[in-house]
Each structure stands twice: as C-alpha cells, then as structure tokens.
UniProtKB/TrEMBL annotation:
Pfam families: GAF, HATPase_c, HisKA, PAS_8, PAS_9, Response_reg. It comes from Pseudaestuariivita atlantica. Its EC number is 2.7.13.3. It is an enzyme of class 2 (transferase). Residues 177-250, 436-465 form the PAS domain. Gene3D superfamilies: 1.10.287.130, 3.30.450.40, 3.40.50.2300, Histidine kinase-like ATPase, C-terminal domain, PAS domain. This is histidine kinase. NCBIfam families: sensory_box. SMART domains: GAF, HATPase_c, HisKA, PAC, PAS, REC.
Amino acid sequence: MSADERLREILIEVQSLRAREAQSLKETTALLDMLEAVATAVDPQAAIRAFLGEVARSLHADVVAVLRIEDGEHRPVALWPEEAQVDAFTPPAALGSKFRTYFDLGAVPEWESCFTGRLSGTKSLLSAPVAHPDGVAGAVACFHPDPNHFSKEDAQLLRRLSRFAGQILSALQLSAQNALLAAVIDGSSSGFAIADAAVDDMPLVFVNKAFESMTGYAASEVLGQNCRFLSADSPDSPERTRLRQAVMDRAQGSFLLRNRKKSGDEFWNDLTLFPVRDGSGTATHMVATQADASDRVALEEERRDAQARLAATLAHTNDAFLLVIGEDTVGFGNPALRRLFPAPGLDWADGTSFAANWRAYVESIPIAQRPTDAAFTTPDLDAFTAQTEGQRLRLPDGKQVLVRADRTEDGDIVISATDITSLRNTERLLRQRAVAVENASDGIAIADAKGRIIYANPSLAKLLGARDELGLVGRKWRAFYRDDPDGTPAAAFMGDDDGTLQTLKIATEGNRYHETSPTYVDKVGEVVVIRNVTARINMLERQTELNAQLERSRRREAISQLAAGLAHDFNNLLSAINGSALLIGLEDDATKSVRDHASRIGRAGNQAARLVNRLLDLGTVGENDSVFDLRSVLTEARDLVSTSLDPAVTLSVTLPDAPVLIGGQTGDASQVLVNLILNASDAYDGAGGEVGVTLDTGPAPSEPGTDLRVGALQPTRAYARIAVRDAGMGMTAATKDKVFEPYFSTKGSAGTGVGLPMVATIVERAGGAILLASTEGEGTTFTIYWPLADGRADADAADGEEIDLSGLTLLLLDDEEQVTDVLLAYLEEHGAEAVSINDPTLAVETLLEDGDAWSALITDYDMPVMTGGDVVHKLREAGCAVPVYVVTALARRLKDPRINPRTVNGIFAKPLDLRQLAHTLAEELS
C-alpha cells in the first residue's frame, strides 16, 4: 500500500472518528441537558415537560408526545408543545412494540390518513417504546411535516433519551399517589399523627388538621413532643399500660383512651397505632389515627343502660327473647328463653355459642320425644329472618311456639318465641264458633252504635229477605220491622223485663214475626240474635183462640146441660098447651073468637118451642129453609109481643104494600123481631116511650162505617131492611163492642145474654148484616139487612088438608100423662084407635106379646127409668118389627146410636106438632 493510500485511509478513519466523537458529544450534551432539566424540575409534571422539550430541541421535532397504547389506540398523555392539539390515533403498526423510524410517511397512505389536528401532514416519524408504571405499553414519538427530517443518528439519540421516560413516568405516578395520600390525610376527619420511631421519646413529626381540630392544639405547639400530654387517664390505667407496651414493641394495636383537649375538656379517643418499617424491617415511624369516640361511648353507655332496663323488663315476660351477635354469639337471653328452651351447662349465657346452646337443648329432650328433623336439630337463623310472618314450631312437650327473627342494622339477629298453645286453642275455638255462627239457623248480626249492620250471617239474610249478607251491611236492622200507630214496635207478644227480648212483626206482606234479642258488647257493638217465631206466634194465637173457644164451649155446655133439663119439662108443657089449643080449635061448637085464640096460643106455643130449641143449639144448622113474606112474620111478632110490653111503651109498625119475600125459617125471623122489639122496650127502663119498627127494601149502604157490627154487605144485592128504633138510654162505645158477645148483658140478673147473640147468628147465617147506631142518653137503632129471595112464598101443605087415621091402632108411651092425654084425644079425633101407657116396661111387654095387633108405637125418649132408646133396643133385639116413632124434647141433641133410620121410622121434636105427626102416620101407615 502506498503512502498516499495509507494516508487516505488514516484521514478517512480520523474523519469517521471525528464524526463518531461529534455524535457522541451531541448525545452526551443532550443527555446532560436532559439530566439538568429534569433534575431542576420542581415536580414530576415539570420534569416530563422538560424531558419532552429537550427531545424536541435535540431532534428539531415539530411535536413530541408520550403515548399510552391500549387496544391499538395511541392516546397522548404528555405533549410538547403543551398547546398542541393532538387527538388519539390508530396507526397501521403499533409504535410501542419496537423502535421505529419513518422517513417519508407520504409514501404510505395508511399512515398519512390516521393523523388529524396538529399531526395532520406528518411525513417524518421517530418512536421508541416506553413501559408505563402500571404495565401498559407506551411510546415516545417525534413528528415532523418534512420528509427525511430525522436521521439515523437522531434515531440513535432518541433511543438513549427514551430511557429517562420510564423513570420520569414512574416518578410522576408516585407523585400523584403521594399528593392523593396527602390530600386524603389532610382532608380526613380522623386525626393523623406521625412520630419518629428512631428516637426513644418518639416526638411527633406530623399532625393533620383533624388532629388540630380534635385536640385544640396547633401543629407548631405539638411537633417535637411526645403525645402523652393528651392523656387524662392515670399512667397505670389498663389502656395506657397496653399502649405503652405497644409503643415499646413498635407494634400495632387499637386503644380507647380518655384524653384532654387544650381547653381542658375531656373526650374519648379511639386510637389505632401501626409502625412504618424500612426495607430491613426496622420501624422508622409510628403512625396513629385518632377519632373522637365520645358520642359512641355515650351511646354505648346508654345502650348498656337500655339493655339493662330491657333485661329487667323481659325478665317478667312470658315471651322468650334472644340476641345473637354476629352469626352465632349469644348477646342476651331472658329467663323465659331458659324456661322454654333449657340448655344445661350453657344456659344461654352471654358470649356462648347459639349452636352449642341449641345442641344442649336438643340433647336434653328425652330420646323417645327428640325430633330428628334437621330443620329442628340444626335451625337456620337466616331462614328464620326470611320468614316475614314468623314460623310455628311444635315442641316435644306439646307446646306450640311462634318464632320470629329479624336482623338489626348492625347485622345482629333478634329472635323472639311466643308460647301460642292457648292462643291456638282459642283460635280453634273461635273458628268453631265462627262456623257455628255462619251455619246457625238463627239470624245473627253485629251492629254499630246507630244500629247499622256491620256483619250478618246467611240465616239473617234469609230471615230479612236479602239476597245475601252483603245486602244487609250498612242498613239499620230495626228498619226491617214495622211499628204500631203509636210508634212502638208491633206485636211484642213476649219479652224479658229488661226489654232485651222482643217479638217484632217484620215489615213485609203477611204476618211474620221475629224474636229479637239485642245485647251490647263492649268494643264489639250490638249483637242481635233473630229467630223466626211466626209458627210459635201463630200457635200461641191459635192456642189462645182455642182456649177461648174451649172456655166458651164449657160455659155453653154448662148452660146447655141446665137448659136441656128445663127444655124437656118445658117442651112437655108446651106439648100439652099446643095440643089442648089445637083440640079447642077443633071443637064443633067453638066460636070464631075461640078458634082465633086457640090458633094464637098454638102459634105462641110453637114459637116458644123454637125458642127453647134455639137456646139449646145456638149456631147450629136448623130446619130446611123456605121462602115467606116477612110482612106476615112481623105482623105475628107484633101480635105476640103486644101483651108483653110495658103499658107505658107503645109499638109502631110500618109495613110496605108489596110482599117482602125472604128465604129462611119463619121461626128464625120471628125470633129476631121479637128479641129486638123487647130489647127496645127494655131500653126505656120503665120510663115509657115509643118503639118504632119499619120494614122496607133497598140496596146496601155504600159506606156502613163502624155501624156495621155483624155480617157483610154486598153492594149489588137487594135487601129487606128492618129498622127497630127506641129513644131510650142508648149505649156506650164499650157496650156496642160487646153487645153481640154470648152471655153479655147490661140487665144484670134480669138478662140472659143470649138474645142478641142469637139474633146475630140467625142474621149472619141468612147472609145478612146488622148495623147498630146508638148514642148514650139518646137512643138506639138496630137495622137488619136480610137478603131478598127470588120466587113466591111457600104454602103450608098441611093447613086445610083433611087427615084420616081410620084403621090404625096406636100405642102411646110417655111418662107425662098430660102429654099422652092430649095426643090420645087428637089421634082419636082423626079416626085412630089409641091406647096410652106411662110405664115403658109394660109397653115393651105389650108389644112383644102381640106386636101384630099394633100399627105403630109412639114413644117419648126422655123417660127416667127406661129411655126411648132402651125401648127400641129391647124391641128390635127381640125381633119385634112394629114401626116406632120417637118424640123428644132434645131432638137436635139426640146422639143415641140405637136411634137410627134402621131402627125407628121417625123422630119428632117436642112440643109435638100434632098435625105433622098425624100427616106422617097417614102417609106411612094408612
């Protein structure tokens, strides 16, 4: 190699060396400037800004950024210049994965299109990977708008400078953490104090504002001192002794100390102490946190007092109470708990385990009775707290308890257990009673103070006619019952003296009665029991009516028995009188006057006989009705009573010209007229006056009003109207109400009380009515309405007809000779051969000896030794077939079964109608 070549190589080598030295100098200068800028920065933020500025100055970059790369997105976290607007971008290649140098990004469209803002138009790019303190990938990137702006030497320089970026970022994060910690400590409500553990007396080196506020001491007053100046406890108190030992041991601990403020006021300090150690484990500082626990201590004291009072109170209750602290520690249990769930050995003492106590209780149960269900042997307290309504448990001893559990705000569990054995029995009883009430046949209601129904059972709805029970709610129960005109509840047929039981008539159609029993029950309301007593009331009314009828029947029976005996004798007398009158009228030499008197005597006798029979069977159905002219009956009645009237009383009778035809019996009509005329005469009581009788016809009055006393009137029917008037003493209202009652009389011993009741019976049976108008002291008018009959009057078939009894042999039997004498004379007058006998035994013997010799036997029934029934029985029993005709004064009352159509040919009433008897004999025997 020539000297020139050798020199040339040396020069090239020297030039290369100088270039490297220049580059090295440049890098060294840049590094030194970087170190100086970072070292002189006042905080990590200033350091990162200085770092970026030196990179930009050394590389002449337009923009320098520290990027944080996550999920391909590159987001700037620090920029130079600071005012540059750089958005996050996503390049086609991650800049944090390796060192990258791009001289002309314009040649790569993907790169050029990913930049916006200040980076838009970037052509040159240098980047170096940097790791963030939290492990996230990052990069330091330099941008410039000119292509080929950065050289390889620039890339080498960035590679060296980027090493500082990681350290600066770590310092920045640590600074942020320290600033946050300082802000937390300084702004904390808890007091912080830091003591130097390297010094034996451990002087305070830091206190925060909360410490100053809590103690009243400023930091300048306490720094450099031991904090024992705050203590208000004696040096040998348990808590200070524990604290002193922890300080000596450089150990951590929690303490409750009584401290004193600068003002002298004491407070409770909740102190937590912990050491700060260096890498070798030596404690360099002791940090204490402090909180004013005065309120908490006071609250705990109040809670202890309250717990003591609660324990004293719960000691006297029958409900078991248990406080479980945390998940298993017994905090409190009352005596009832120990009685209900005895736990031998532990006895639910404070601080013991719930599980252990329950296990002891289960093991104390005899094996034969001990439950094996896991839910009982190992109860789940969380499951108990989830039961909002509690859980029922049946204990082995038969008791039933309701267990309730709930968590407090502190997370503790309060459990109560109530013995509900008696309650369950009561509930069962109440359910049974409720079912009984719902299904009771009686109506049951509960009403408020105003009588409005608030509950009703189904039976009450039926009783009151409601669709269902809801249809009664809100309605007043008394409104269902109607009142009497005076406003009082109707039909109080029965009731207690205190008025709690009444029988009311329900306000509906028809007579329905309810027995009501209202009772006021405190805190419940008015309980009303209602029973349908309609059947009972009807039965009582019927029983009352029957009793009245029975009493009337007994009275009538007694009078009838008396009248029957009198009637027999009286009818025998009438038979003799009527017969004698008839015989007198048949005498050939009798004058017309004699015959008229005899006829009048006969009619009076017949009228008397009918009257006797009417008294005996008042109200019974009599003879067959006929049609007759009422004028003739009234004329006969006038003639009959004329001689019986008081001489001071005059009788005035007004008759119509035309016949007045009515249906019925002449005797009935005559009795009505005679009774009314005689009563009108008696009304003058001897004072004298006129009795007026008027007969006419006409319709019924349109409004008879209260004068209508007997029967009913039909507006469309025509009536014979008989008015009997007097101007006598008149009647009171009470007398008018009773005048037609049987046996009622205002005449004292002179009255019988049967006249007007008989009149009422006859008129009502004929379909008529009686109006009574009377004023006390002014007089009385009886107006009889008797229905008019259609057709003409019946003739007396027997009158004027000749009767021939020739050829008949008749045996007459009666214990009264005067009766047989008259009958014998009459029968012989008409051609019969008759024999009278007064001994029944002789009559029977005569007929049995030669029955064929006799045409008939006419016998009295009412004989003392042997009755007519006995005579008939002996004859028929002996086979005697002679015809028998029975005569009796009690024809309508005759009930002898031996007297019947098969044994006798006829029955005739006394006084005997001789003409009717003779007519019957002539028709049946001649």
